[in-house]
Amino acid sequence: MVATINGATANAVNTKVTLCGIEMDNPVMAASGTFGYGKEFAELYDINQLGSFSFKGTTLKPRFGNETPRIAECPQGMLNSVGLQNPGVDAVISEELPELAKVFHKPVMANVCGGSPEEYAAVTAKLEAADQNADCESAQPQIGWIEVNISCPNVKDGGMAFGTDPNAAASVISAVRRETKKPLIAKLSPNVTDIAEIAKACEAAGADGLTAINTLLGMRIDLRTGKPILAREVGGFSGPAVFPIALRAVWQVTHAVDIPVIGCGGISSAEDVLEMMMAGAKAVQVGSANLVDPYACVKIIEELPAAMEKYGITSLEGICSEESRKNM
Ligand SMILES: Cc1cc2nc3c(=O)[nH]c(=O)nc-3n(C[C@H](O)[C@H](O)[C@H](O)COP(=O)(O)O)c2cc1C
């Protein structure tokens, strides 16, 4: 019998995973900033096929993002300096989330950003309050997890500055922790000497999980002008080229903390998902691949059962268990 893409399958491969107490049909989430607030993708396919997705990094006030050009192509990847363009948390609550509720019936991950610990906390408090009001009508909260982006390399204030210092990272996580009981995921920057140190600081400050990694700081120069291609000169590098770096980061972080880790960076196939989970990831996020092919996530999800069978994997929960990690 043919395996189905959602959950347990006839061929006895089980793609379900549980992330911070929330069960997902499969471990594949779309990564923040590559999936908007879901609606453009919902026009192309049923986005309920995803495990979930992390919505665009959201700040207290609307942000128009950085000057253009803010994208540069690279072999096996891309540079972006979008600069957290988003409509602001109030518009997300009044417009984006109600629209999303019509087409997506699973808990979504809310990606939160700010220029100070207080701003991160204020955005989280607003999302928390809005979600409690929405709870009255539906059985499950619309926002499953709060993902705290302490790793954006494309903003002047905050962003990566918080994710490259353990004390600063802890101050943001503690501030957000006070505002929500939802699972709190810290999104880590790869632009550090010791990612495990930042991971441990986030865990100690109250994070329930981690996402590793955000983009790597990079740059390109236009040979005709001798000037940087990006208006902001530097940007975040992502795509297949970063996969081994992300995998290494996930490996290091899962050995340093006891909380679950979401693997992110360069994933573009079902095999990549399995490799990331063998490194210790509980779930995965797919980013730039969505910009190359908007169907990337569903294709990966469809390919997952066959890839599991190929490698004799019957359950994804099992791959990254404490037991199997210790034996690696
Ligand atoms: C255009 C673009 C925008 C992004 N915006 C965000 C964001 O708002 N918040 C965030 O946490 N990460 C953001 N990211 C980082 C991705 O979520 C992801 O961590 C990174 O791209 C690595 O994964 P990938 O190699 O699969 O793209 C963005 C990435 C890209 C390419």
Can you walk me through this structure?
The chain is of the alpha/beta class. It has one domain (17-65, 84-217, 238-326): Alpha-Beta Barrel (TIM Barrel), CATH 3.20.20.70. The protein is built from twelve helices and 16 strands. It has helices spanning 39-42, 89-103, 117-135, 160-163, 166-177, 195-204, 243-256, 270-278, 289-292, 296-310, 316-319, 322-326, and strands at 17-19, 22-24, 28-30, 52-53, 71-74, 77-80, 108-112, 143-149, 184-188, 209-212, 216-219, 221-222, 227-228, 234-238, 261-264, 283-286. It has an eight-stranded parallel sheet. It has a four-stranded antiparallel sheet with strand order 5-6-14-11, with no helix packed on it. A two-stranded antiparallel sheet has the order 1-2. Strand 15 (261-264), helix 8 and strand 16 (283-286) form a beta-alpha-beta unit. Helix 5 runs parallel beside helix 6. The two termini are 33 Å apart. Residues 1-5 have low confidence and may be disordered. Residues 31-34, 56-57, 80, 82, 84, 111, 149, 152, 187, 214-215, 238-239, 242, 264-267, 286-289 line the site of flavin mononucleotide (FMN).
